[in-house]
């Protein structure tokens, strides 16, 4: 069941990449941005820079919300992009790549929200793909149904709307747990974008 869900997440993310606006090149740190296309597909994302396993990297954290006209189906997903992936020593990105990747069914991602010194952690499975838009970029993707209030992605977004100041995304190498990609993004000023992302979702 979980592997089936992960495959659905993979195909949903792949469809988003094909049908929506192309990723702009990752650039210097900027505010959270919100976009919506003619089909009602909503995104909010943040571009930044971070040192990952000793390597200076460009990073992007993106949340994507889809639903049909009745508001009954769709996915709330998150994409975490990092580049240059080939320069990061010893991390096995191919372990996550593709719908049948070894990472399927394993909770190798930890999301940590920090608010007022308190931390709330969520663990989830994820897949990934080598980016066609970002040079030497790799994208980790994960999600749960948009209207499923118990889904961890919905809880993450609700935590951000509830006043979280930062979000940390950590991905552990499936073969070597000592290798962990960790990046922290500010979210305190992104609340209006997340409100727009979730507008009309109950």
Write up what this structure looks like:
The protein is of the alpha+beta class. The protein has one domain (2-197). The strands form two sheets. The protein has a six-stranded antiparallel β-sheet with strand order 1-2-3-4-8-7. The chain has a four-stranded antiparallel β-sheet with strand order 6-5-9-10, covered by helices on one side. It is built from three helices and ten strands; from the N terminus they run αββββββββαββα.
- Class by SSE composition: alpha+beta
Major sheet: 6 strands, antiparallel
- Helix percent reads 10-25%
As laid out across the biggest beta sheet, the strand order is 1-2-3-4-8-7
**Count of separate structural domains:** 1
SSE run: HEEEEEEEEHEEH
Q: What overall geometry do the principal axes of the alpha carbons give?
A: globular
Mean of the pLDDT scores? Answer: 85
Question: C-alpha Rg, in Å?
Answer: 16 Å
Output the number of helix runs.
Answer: 3
* Count of extended strands: 10
Distance N to C terminus: 25 Å
């Amino acid at each position: 069941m979980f592997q089936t869900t992960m495959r659905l997440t993979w195909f949903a993310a792949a469809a988003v990449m094909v049908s929506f606006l192309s990723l702009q090149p990752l650039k210097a740190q900027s505010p959270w941005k919100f976009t919506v296309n003619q089909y009602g597909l909503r995104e909010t994302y943040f571009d930044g820079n971070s040192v990952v396993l000793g390597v200076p990297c460009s990073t992007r954290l993106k949340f994507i919300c889809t639903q049909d006209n009745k508001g009954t189906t769709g996915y709330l997903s998150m994409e975490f992009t990092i580049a240059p992936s080939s320069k990061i020593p010893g991390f096995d990105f191919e372990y996550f790549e593709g719908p049948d990747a070894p990472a399927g069914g394993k909770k190798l991602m930890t999301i940590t929200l920090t608010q007022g010194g308190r931390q709330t952690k969520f663990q989830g499975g994820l897949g990934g793909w080598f980016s066609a838009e970002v040079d030497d970029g790799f994208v980790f993707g994960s999600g749960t149904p948009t209207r499923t209030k118990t889904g961890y992605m919905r809880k993450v977004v609700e935590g951000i709307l509830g006043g979280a100041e930062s979000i940390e995304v950590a991905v552990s190498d499936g073969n070597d747990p000592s290798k962990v990609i960790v990046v922290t993004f500010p979210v305190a000023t992104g609340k209006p974008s997340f409100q727009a992302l979730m507008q009309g979702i109950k």
